[in-house]
């Protein structure tokens, strides 16, 4: 009864935000992030366009079949869509699924034709099919086009350089929260390729339950484009014991991590990912992610970090500042070799964990940060802020 009452309140709040003039996008973002997300596909049809600043009164016409004759990507798209049977609801009649697969091909080719700067990648269809199943072909075409020129832009370059750069954020995030897991993964030389399909499909390719996929899409659509890599990090951190119990070699750790559990505590992980973004925003991790020149060209880097992140007092930052001051004193006293040995252990698990837990126990601060910043960058969608 309590759950139903909360759900009713949330639905009422969502429709109130949709019906206000102007539409209260900040509330819609908070609803998409907070527990349960947007609840139903009917609501998603109304809210997803608002999160992406898509005008539903001016949708593009459905593409014609001539697209297939002109497209250099048609054969690859066709192969990928034919292999996508498991992305459709189990038990769906074959003829219905085949119609949707044809629509899926058309949406992808339409977006690519209208945006020749975009390059198709395997896994893109996993994102497009999610939108098709939730909102239908016409609206999906508009939403996917906006998403492709913004959140997904870095995956659609001619090379994978920007995608690899985004993956480079994974280990610094893990290092901030759990240096032991980070060091173990570094010793195993596992790299980050196990998370590639998670990132470029927004987990659509690896999660079997469609409800979990759309719940994550609610979250990602309301957030910074780098949020999927923070979510990838919290999955690894959630599996801390499994990782540390694994054989410390590349093949074993890669095999473990690439097999994503299907029974993850999604609401808890979403909350933690939001908190970590607030505590360790991309600007603080950029140096560790390296490739600074490359970072300036990524779509994600053009978004302003959460406003709260710049003013949030972070206990671990204070600790590290004090530590650096102590280091400087020791350097004068004991010389360079002593400093090098201390630098290898800049913090303890306990302090960092306390900092993470102490920041917020629920999604409160992270949701507030998302909402505060969302209005700053959402209008820029129309200004073509990416090169």
TrEMBL record:
Coiled coil: none annotated. GO terms for molecular function: GTPase activator activity. One of its GO terms (cellular component) is endoplasmic reticulum membrane. The keyword Transmembrane helix applies. It is a multi-pass membrane protein. The chain crosses the membrane at residues 190-207, 219-237, 351-371. It holds the Pfam family RabGAP-TBC. The keyword Acyltransferase does not apply. It comes from the Eukaryota. GO terms for biological process: endoplasmic reticulum to Golgi vesicle-mediated transport; Golgi organization; vesicle organization. Keywords: GTPase activation, Membrane, Transmembrane, Transmembrane helix. InterPro entries: Rab-GAP-TBC_dom, Rab-GAP_TBC_sf, TBC20/Gyp8-like. Residues 38-224 form the Rab-GAP TBC domain. PROSITE patterns: TBC_RABGAP. It is found in: Membrane. PANTHER family: TBC1 DOMAIN FAMILY MEMBER 20 (PTHR20913:SF10), TBC1 DOMAIN FAMILY MEMBER 20/GTPASE (PTHR20913). This is TBC1 domain family member 20. It comes from Lanius ludovicianus (Loggerhead shrike).
């Amino acid at each position: 009864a309590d759950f139903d009452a909360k759900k009713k309140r949330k639905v009422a709040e969502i429709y109130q935000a949709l019906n206000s003039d102007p539409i209260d996008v900040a509330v819609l973002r908070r609803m998409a992030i907070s527990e349960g997300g947007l609840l139903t596909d009917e609501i998603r049809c109304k809210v997803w366009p608002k999160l992406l600043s898509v005008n539903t009164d001016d949708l593009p016409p459905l593409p014609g079949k001539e697209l297939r004759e002109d497209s250099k990507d048609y054969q690859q798209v066709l192969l990928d869509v034919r292999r996508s049977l498991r992305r459709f609801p189990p038990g769906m009649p074959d003829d219905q699924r085949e119609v949707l697969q044809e629509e899926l091909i058309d949406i992808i080719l339409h977006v690519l034709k209208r945006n020749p700067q975009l390059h198709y990648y395997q896994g893109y269809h996993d994102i497009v099919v999610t939108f098709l199943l939730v909102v239908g072909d016409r609206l999906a075409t508009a939403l996917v086009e906006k998403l492709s020129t913004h959140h997904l832009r870095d995956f659609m370059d001619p090379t994978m350089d920007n995608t690899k750069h985004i993956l480079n954020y994974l280990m610094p995030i893990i290092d901030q929260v759990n240096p032991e897991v980070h060091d173990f993964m570094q010793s195993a030389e596992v790299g980050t390729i196990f998370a590639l399909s998670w990132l470029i499909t927004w987990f659509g390719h690896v999660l079997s339950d469609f409800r979990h996929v759309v719940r994550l899409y609610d979250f990602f659509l309301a957030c910074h484009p780098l949020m999927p890599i923070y979510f990838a990090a919290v999955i690894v951190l959630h599996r801390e014991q499994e990782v540390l119990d694994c054989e410390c070699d590349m093949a074993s750790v890669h095999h473990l991590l690439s097999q994503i559990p299907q029974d993850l505590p999604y609401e808890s992980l979403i909350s933690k990912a939001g908190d970590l973004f607030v505590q360790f925003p991309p600007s603080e991790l950029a140096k560790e992610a390296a490739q600074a020149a490359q970072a300036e060209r990524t779509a994600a880097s053009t978004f302003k970090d959460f406003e709260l992140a710049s003013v949030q007092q972070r206990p671990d930052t204070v600790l590290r500042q004090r530590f650096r001051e102590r280091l400087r004193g020791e350097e004068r006293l004991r010389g360079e070799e002593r400093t090098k040995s201390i630098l290898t252990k800049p913090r303890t698990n306990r302090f960092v964990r306390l900092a993470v837990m102490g920041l917020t126990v629920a999604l409160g601060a992270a949701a507030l940060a998302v909402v505060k910043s969302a209005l700053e960058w959402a209008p820029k969608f129309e200004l073509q802020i990416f090169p």
